[in-house]
Each structure stands twice: as structure tokens, then as C-alpha cells.
Amino acid sequence: MKIIIQRVSEASVTINDQVKSSIEKGFLILLGITHEDTQEDIEWLTNKIIGLRIFSDANGAMNLSVKDIDGDLLVISQFTLHASTKKGNRPSFLEAARPEVAIPLYENFISTLSRKHTKEVYTGEFGADMKVRLLNDGPVTITIDSKNKQ
């Protein structure tokens, strides 16, 4: 499982010209799932997200978590995070999980994250053509891969 976390002042996702979800200060999380991902990856990544201290404290140091600031979370599924560009100019997505594997993991990721954050996690729609808007705060953008936890 790979994620890209962007610290945002605001973010939203639109599907078919309708805003599905919008958040204020918090994280926009792009989530890529492979066919090898498990509940262990979900647990590790959601703990990382909740504990990640990248919001400024009173002294301006990155010392606060999304939970500390009561921030919002917006999760967008993005299979293209697993694109391989080794050969040719057209990316291969063979590592991305097929929907029958990815959807249950995506839903479990959201429910696990919501339970740990103790507030609603906003989402896009798996497999939909989504338009994502964000105001990156910092900018702060961090990539985390659950396969690199050692």
C-alpha cells in the first residue's frame, strides 16, 4: 500500500460536477493498493497517518498530529500510484490490485482510519472519474509505502 499525504488548508473531490466531499484543515490522502496488501498494511499505515506530526505547534515547529489539531481526512483511491514506467512511455499498472481485491481493502482502510481518528473520514468514490482540488499547506507532501516499514 502506498499513500501520498498532503497537508491541506482545504480540499474537495467532485464527481459528475457534484462535490462529493470537502474538508478544511487536515490531510488529503491518495491511496494506492496492490494485490499483495493485507490488514497488516492497513494497521501500520493508519497508525502512521494518525501519529504523523506535521502540523505546526505554537512555536512554528512541526510537532502536532492531525488528531492533535482535530483535522479532517479525505481519502482518494488512486491505482496510478503503482504505475511502472520501466519500459516504454505508457505506464503499466500490473501491481495495482484489481477491484475485487482493492475495494474491500479500500473500505477497510477507511473504516480503520475513522475508528483511530474518532471522526468521519471523507472519501471520493472508488473507480470514479474524480476531480480533486486542494490548497496544499506548506507545501507539505509525504509519500509512505507500507512495504518499506523496516
From TrEMBL:
EC numbers for this chain: 3.1.1.96, 3.1.1.-
InterPro entries: Daa-tRNA_deacyls_DTD (IPR003732), DTD-like_sf (IPR023509)
UniProt keywords, alphabetically: Cytoplasm, Hydrolase, RNA-binding, tRNA-binding
Predominant cellular place of this UniProt entry's protein: cytoplasm
Gene Ontology MF terms: D-tyrosyl-tRNA(Tyr) deacylase activity; Gly-tRNA(Ala) deacylase activity; Ser(Gly)-tRNA(Ala) hydrolase activity; tRNA binding
Keyword Cell inner membrane assigned: no
Locations listed in the record: Cytoplasm
Catalytic activity: glycyl-tRNA(Ala) + H2O = tRNA(Ala) + glycine + H(+); a D-aminoacyl-tRNA + H2O = a tRNA + a D-alpha-amino acid + H(+)
Renumbered ranges of motif Gly-cisPro motif, important for rejection of L-amino acids: 138-139
Gene Ontology terms describing biological process: D-amino acid catabolic process
The keyword RNA-binding is assigned to this record: yes
Pfam families, sorted: Tyr_Deacylase (PF02580)
Its biological purpose: An aminoacyl-tRNA editing enzyme that deacylates mischarged D-aminoacyl-tRNAs. Also deacylates mischarged glycyl-tRNA(Ala), protecting cells against glycine mischarging by AlaRS. Acts via tRNA-based rather than protein-based catalysis; rejects L-amino acids rather than detecting D-amino acids in the active site. By recycling D-aminoacyl-tRNA to D-amino acids and free tRNA molecules, this enzyme counteracts the toxicity associated with the formation of D-aminoacyl-tRNA entities in vivo and helps enforce protein L-homochirality.
HAMAP family given in the database record: Deacylase_Dtd
Free-text comment on this protein's domains from its UniProt entry: A Gly-cisPro motif from one monomer fits into the active site of the other monomer to allow specific chiral rejection of L-amino acids.
Family: Belongs to the DTD family.
Protein name: D-aminoacyl-tRNA deacylase
Species this chain originates from: Dokdonia pacifica
